[in-house]
Task: structure prediction
Amino acid sequence: MAGNSKRTIIQLESTAGTGYRYVFTKSKRLHPDRVEYKKYDPIVRKHVIFKESK
Result:
């Protein structure tokens, strides 16, 4: 997917403690630090903060 590009594959893990994760790519140039997004966690059926994990 992100073979030879300037984007890297990351995982976002739920802060609700459910272990649910989203996987997508981010731009290394625009977001060099770890990112946080508020996304839907279907296990707790709420929008929670997801943090980038390695």
Notes: Residues 7-53 form a domain with the Rubrerythrin, domain 2 fold (CATH 2.20.28.120).
